[in-house]
Specification:
This protein is mainly alpha-helical. The chain contains six helices and two strands. The protein has helices at residues 15-26, 31-34, 45-63, 70-74, 87-107, 130-154; strands spanning 116-121, 124-129. A hairpin with a 2-residue loop joins strand 1 and strand 2 (124-129). Helix 1 (15-26) packs parallel to helix 6 (130-154), helix 3 (45-63) packs parallel to helix 5 (87-107) and helix 3 packs antiparallel against helix 6 (130-154). The mean pLDDT is 95.
Length: 162
């Protein structure tokens, strides 16, 4: 297989490790622990995790067309009227969205990074390359995963071990 036909999965090695660390930090948490916040005006640990999951689903499914119908339900997990999720549900959400990400990276090749998604949202036009979207989801995972880790540590709970 030539470099031009190799999947993108290898280029994103390490993201899978972070995925495991996120799910490992969330899995043992009780509902009370998921409700903990770094400050009263900030999202709870559970709300942050839910947001990470929903954003993954929106970018990979709604924008890039990856994954199945189950992603449509997950895309709205972080809406104000959405139910609070248990640790088991959050782990499932992380795993389901990760599977979509893995499958996409496995079938895309380097040339696919140049693909541009165009559309209009809220009356504003947008234009995103696939490369930008993938990077944005990674940086989003890292940013909000850091919030989870910080919040866990503040409350003497096991933080994400990076």
């Amino acid at each position: 297989m030539t470099e031009n036909h190799a999947s993108l999965a290898h280029f994103y090695d390490g993201w899978d490790v972070y995925q495991q660390q996120l799910t490992g930090a969330i899995a043992p948490l009780s509902p009370d622990q998921l409700a903990l916040r770094a400050a009263p005006h900030l999202r709870s640990i559970g709300e942050i995790a839910t947001h990470i999951i929903a954003v993954r689903a929106r970018w990979f499914h709604s924008l890039m067309g990856e994954g199945g119908a189950d992603m449509s339900a997950i895309e709205v997990w972080d809406r104000k009227d959405a139910p609070v999720r248990s640790a088991a549900e959050l782990v499932h959400g992380f795993e389901a969205t990760w599977l979509v990400i893995q499958e996409a990276l496995a079938h895309w090749v380097p040339a696919d990074l140049e693909f541009i998604y165009r559309g209009t949202r809220g009356g504003e036009s947008y234009s995103f390359s696939r490369q930008w979207v993938i990077w944005h989801v990674i940086e989003h995972d890292l940013h909000h995963g850091g919030e989870i880790s910080f919040s866990l540590g503040m409350h003497d709970l096991a933080a994400i071990d990076i």
